[in-house]
Design a protein that fits this description.
The complex is a heterodimer of chains A (292) and B (356). Chain A has 292 residues and is an all-alpha fold. Chain A is built from eleven helices and two strands. Helices cover 72% and strands 2% of the residues of chain B. The chains are: A mainly alpha (292), B mainly alpha (356).
Chain lengths: 292, 356
């Protein structure tokens, strides 16, 4: 029983992190319908920048964290300006292949600089945040990640529903030429959405780094695990991303705990194929019906 | 003898057959035939064993890259599982050759067919959806196949790997790089011919129609789902065929090479070579294999001079960086790849000295 509850708690918290990671991905998809294969690398980059600031430059956390977020925000702008802006109006498949290339480029660069070793952040979260509930132990990181996740979930929900910028983003995703002709500033929308997505990615990278340690390979494979999460939740639903993340996280920990540890990493992808078969637009995705 | 046909100074085609010719000029056809003659008669005897190894690798990679180009360049669907399908072909050939005792000539096409069936299995759920769901399904396929290759030990012998018997055709053993050169390039020419001609049939033109505008294609009476699936099956067949050849060439295979990195490598080949160009895929395979060997040579030199060995510079990240950069630069600067560069060079020669 205790084992079950501990697995449940672990699954929930890991799943929440997946959801957090998936939010940045959905952000880009919602504004430009691009599948960003470089998401894990953006996460790893955020974590490494935080590591450098906190470990090498020895800045205090309250300074290093916002600085990292600023860096990620600027990085998102730069990536968009250098690599994605020239492709506005090109077929989507070019953009997606470009993100595959970017992923490989970033990963190679990070491996050259930091190597494939596992790094850990120095311990900085206060112990008081840890929740002890019977025999179940929730470390402080998870508590913090849940709070951060909920804040971002609410902000994004409000942003896309009510702010004019959010509505522009949805219009661009739906039909780029139509949005352009109606006077939506598509370039600005792209720049902003990449910047925000990089920021969210960097943040989830930091949180994941605190929990599992930072390793380029691990973080980039989590970046790919975003795909089952968003397919399950619905590609364009931010709330769905969180719920999909939690379901995938639970599935992973339960298979890891009861069936076999090697199956753990494949289960999300098996779920992905299954979901594509029975409910391709996910739990909360927008169902597109088109008759030709 | 009829008059030799050279390149005109513009597009003067007035019949559809002229648009569909493989060689625009008689000169091109002669040049290709002469090139093939030199390739088969001179190259295997003039090159070292190492160079032959590179050439054979290029031939095998080219076959797989042509397959991926049919999917990406002609049908407009992206596959991230090509490396895994290559592995399925390799393992299918190995298992057929060892456990079922298939001869070489039968095992390789059978491996291709098996891979095509596996591809259809993963393509089936996503093909009926609009958009790029196939990309995501093949990503899942990549991971699931990788897992099965390692953990389905009853079939694939897990991490032990499989050792294949020597390839032989009608009792003639085909050991060694030079013999395999003829097999690999024979297969490459056959598969290139099939691909080039396939793209001229109604099927190929239907693929292009789907790529350019799926709604219009459906309006013209092309059933999109079967055609997308067919394209994916053909692409998987090419991957499996190449994988089977590779397994015979390598003699013993293990599960490691067929990872996501290999899939990205194939995407890089197709982009660098030129989307929607069969010859481009071959250029891409040459470029990537050359880049691989160049990087290996570079790291060897840097390591031996002891300048960088202290930092522990290794091959893998450098490769990843180089492939990524190549993909990004080609998409941004020359989206139609080396095939287009080659065309520009040729037309510069043709129009010289007034090429503007």
């Amino acid at each position: 029983m205790d084992f079950f509850i501990q697995l449940l708690v672990n699954g929930l918290s890991i799943g929440f992190l997946y959801g957090l990671a998936a939010m940045g991905f959905v952000m880009i998809f919602k504004s430009s319908s691009v599948l960003n294969f470089a998401h894990g690398e953006l996460m790893a980059l955020g974590a490494f920048v935080f590591l450098v600031l906190i470990g090498w430059a020895e800045l205090p956390v309250y300074l290093a964290f916002p600085l990292t977020l600023v860096f990620c925000f600027v990085l998102g702008f730069v990536v968009e300006r250098l690599f994605l802006r020239p492709l506005i109006g090109e077929p989507l498949i070019y953009v997606i292949m470009l993100t595959v290339g970017l992923a490989s480029m970033f990963k190679g660069a990070m491996l050259l600089i930091w190597g494939g070793n596992l790094y850990t952040f120095p311990d900085f979260l206060p112990e008081g945040l840890a929740i002890q509930w019977g025999s179940v132990n929730i470390p402080p990181v998870y508590a913090v990640s849940i709070v951060i996740g909920l804040i971002f979930l609410m902000l994004f929900g409000l942003f896309f529903k009510y702010s004019s910028q959010g509505i522009y983003m949805r219009s661009v995703a739906d039909n780029q030429p139509a949005a352009l002709s109606l006077g939506v500033h598509v370039r600005k929308v792209f720049a902003l959405s990449w910047a925000i997505a990089a920021l969210v990615a960097g943040m989830s990278g930091i949180v994941l780094g605190i929990i599992n340690g930072i390793n380029v390979h691990d973080l980039s494979s989590i970046g790919l695990k975003v795909f089952p999460v968003v397919i399950l939740g619905g590609l364009d639903s931010i709330g769905g991303a969180v719920i999909g993340g939690i379901i995938i996280g639970l599935l992973e920990t339960f298979t890891g705990g009861y069936l076999s540890t090697s199956l753990r990493d494949v289960v999300p992808y098996i779920v992905l194929v299954f979901i594509l078969m029975v409910k391709p637009y996910g739990l909360f995705g927008l169902v597109e019906i088109e008759r030709v | 003898m009829r008059k030799l046909h050279f390149h005109p100074c513009g597009n003067f085609n007035d019949r559809y057959e002229q648009e569909l010719t493989i060689f625009e000029t008689d000169f091109g056809r002669t040049a290709v035939l002469a090139g093939l003659l030199i390739l088969f008669a001179v190259v295997p005897y003039a090159s070292s064993a190492y160079f032959l190894y590179i050439l054979n690798t290029i031939a095998i990679m080219s076959i797989a890259a042509i397959g991926l180009n049919i999917l990406i360049g002609f049908t407009g669907q992206l596959s991230l599982g090509h490396g895994a399908f290559f592995g399925v072909g390799a393992y299918a050939a190995a298992i057929l050759a060892t456990d079922a005792g298939f001869p070489f000539l039968l095992a390789v096409p059978c491996a291709g067919v098996i891979t095509a069936l596996v591809g259809v299995l993963f393509g089936l759920p996503s093909g009926r959806l609009k958009g790029l769901y196939l990309t995501i399904a093949t990503l899942a396929g990549q991971f699931i196949i990788e897992y099965l290759l390692v953990h389905w030990e009853g079939l694939t012998r897990g991490t032990m790997g499989i050792v294949l018997p020597e390839a032989s055709i009608f009792g003639v053993a085909l050991g060694g790089d030079r013999c395999f050169f003829y097999i690999a390039y024979g297969a490459l020419i056959l598969m290139t011919l099939i691909a080039v001609n396939l793209m001229r049939t109604r099927y190929g033109r239907a693929f292009v129609a789907i790529r350019d505008n799926d709604r219009a294609a459906e309006g013209m009476g092309i059933p999109i789902f079967p055609y997308k699936l067919l394209s994916f099956a053909i692409s998987s067949f090419y991957a499996g065929f190449a994988g089977a050849l590779w397994a015979y060439y390598m003699v013993s295979i293990t599960t490691e090479p067929f990872n996501l990195g290999l899939s990205v490598e194939y995407i890089a080949m197709v982009i660098i070579g030129g989307l929607g160009s069969i010859t481009g895929s071959i250029f891409g395979a040459i470029f990537i294999t050359g880049l691989n060997e160049g990087l290996r040579w570079l790291t060897d030199i840097l390591m031996s001079t002891n300048i960088l060995s202290a930092i522990g510079l290794s091959m893998a990240p450098l490769r990843e960086l180089a492939f990524g950069t190549a993909i990004v630069l080609f998409i941004l600067l020359e989206p139609r790849g080396l095939a287009e560069v080659w065309r520009i060079i040729r037309s510069n020669f043709r129009l010289w000295p007034f090429s503007y």
